[in-house]
Amino acid sequence: MLNPKRSHSASSFDMDVSSRPRVPSLLGSARDSFAFLKEPCFVKSGTGSCTVAEQQNDTQCKRRHEEADLDSELKSKRIKRIMANRLSAQRSRLRKLVYVEKLERDVKAEEVKVYWLSLQESLYQQSQMALETENTRIKEIMEGLEREKAMKEVEFQYLKKELQALRGASMRLLYN
């Protein structure tokens, strides 16, 4: 049996084919799931590599490979979760962009409304000023007509009194 602490060269691992350890493959078909190695099997889980002694004692090597498979499965789940999170974040950013563009369109539409309403307001203010000016002019005309009416009324009363005075004088002349 070989010493596991001793540094081995590639020639020290020459074993016959039937005693070589099997390593599960992450890719390929079920037929390709085990490969025969002449060298120590390296496990990606960070636990190190199986030594020749461990390869011969299949239980420790199998345990490390199972841990590596578990780590590999956890890593693939983690990668799937990360990808799903990235896709979700991307969809969220797209929704945000669509929402912001909608808000910008709404703002522009409201700005256009404000512009047209301000134009209408200025037209209405001009119309109001014109109507106020016309109203003031009509009031002045009415005041002038009322003064003229009052003067005519005074003149009418004066003429009426004078007419009565003339009638009274002419009646006195007739009966005298």
Structure explained in plain terms:
The protein is mostly helical and 176 residues long. The protein has a domain of 78 residues. The protein is 70% helix and 3% strand. The chain contains two helices and two strands, in the order E-E-H-H. It has a two-stranded antiparallel ribbon with strand order 1-2. The longest helix is centred in the middle third of the chain and has 118 residues. The protein is rod-shaped. The N and C termini lie far apart (180 Å). The N terminus is likely disordered.
List keywords for this structure.
coiled coil; 176 residues; disordered N terminus; DNA binding; BZIP domain-containing protein; nucleus; 2 strands; rod-shaped; two-stranded antiparallel ribbon; 2 helices; mainly alpha
Number of strands: 2
Helix/strand-derived category reads mainly alpha
Radius of gyration computed on alpha carbons: 57 Å
Q: For the largest beta sheet, what order do the strands appear in spatially?
A: 1-2
Q: Identify the overall geometry.
A: rod-shaped
Biggest β-sheet description: 2 strands, antiparallel
Beta-strand residue fraction: under 5%
Measured as a percent range, the helix fraction is 55-70%
Q: What is the tally of helical segments?
A: 2
Straight-line distance between termini = 180 Å
Give a brief rundown of this model.
InterPro entries: bZIP, bZIP_RF2, bZIP_sf, bZIP_transcription_regulators. By secondary structure, the chain is mainly alpha-helical.
